[in-house]
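I am writing to request your help with a piece of structural work I have in hand. A protein sequence and the structure tokens that stand for its backbone fold form the material at issue. Please examine both parts with care and let me know of anything in them that strikes you as inconsistent. The record follows directly beneath this note.
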Amino acid sequence: MGSATKSLVSLYVDRSSPESCWVVRDPEGKFWLVPPVNSPWENRQPFCPTAEMELEPIPGHYKYLLDLPF
């Protein structure tokens, strides 16, 4: 019998950046920088967090703001 695992999406805001951009960790574990524009998910950029960054977790109910496909 196999076990089902649920992939989670996590939302963050980068408080160390003057622009305070959204950061999304997708179900595959990849990080994306999502700008505050129309069609934000379509305009995402790959992102690699560093130890110096201040990623603040954001509640998941804000996913609708980013047009996430999951």
Observations:
- The mean pLDDT is 86.
- The chain has one domain: 10-66.
